[in-house]
Amino acid sequence: MTERRQLDQDRLYPCMELRNVEWLQSFESLDRRRKVCLFRAPDVDAMRESLRSEGVGFDRVWAAAQRDPDPAALDGPARVTL
After folding, report:
1. Burial class (CB in 10 A: 0-12, 13-18, 19+), 30
2. Which of 11, 19, 56, 63 has the fewest CB atoms within 10 Å, measured from its CB?
């Protein structure tokens, strides 16, 4: 982890805790140019306020619902829908 990233986390986590935001998981591209982070929060504004209050840059914050694959669909042949 870079020193800059550690500083961002050290500043950001207390703000997230105040707003009931919990870090769940992150995915980073192999070239380290893009990252998607998953958080659990009461709403998107709680996450945005946490990031903005500490000057941590971000492209977008949006709400999402978790969808798991339908087990019945996994029994048949693989299908890709675009």
Report:
1. exposed
2. 63
Q: Coil, strand or helix: which one is 15?
A: helix
For residue 65, give the 3-state DSSP assignment. Answer: coil
Task: Report the alpha-carbon distance of residue 23 to residue 12 in Å, rounded.
Answer: 11
Q: How far is CA 70 from the centre of its chain?
A: 24
Q: How far separated are the first and last CA of the chain, in Å rounded?
A: 36
Phi/psi for 24 (5° steps) reads -110, -50
Whole-prediction pTM value?
Answer: 0.69
DSSP string, 8-63: HHHHHHHHHHHTT-EEEEEEE-TTSS-EEEEEE-SSHHHHHHHHHHTT---S----
Per-residue pLDDT reduced to its tens digit, 36-80: 999 999 999 999 999 999 888 889 999 998 888 777 766 666 555
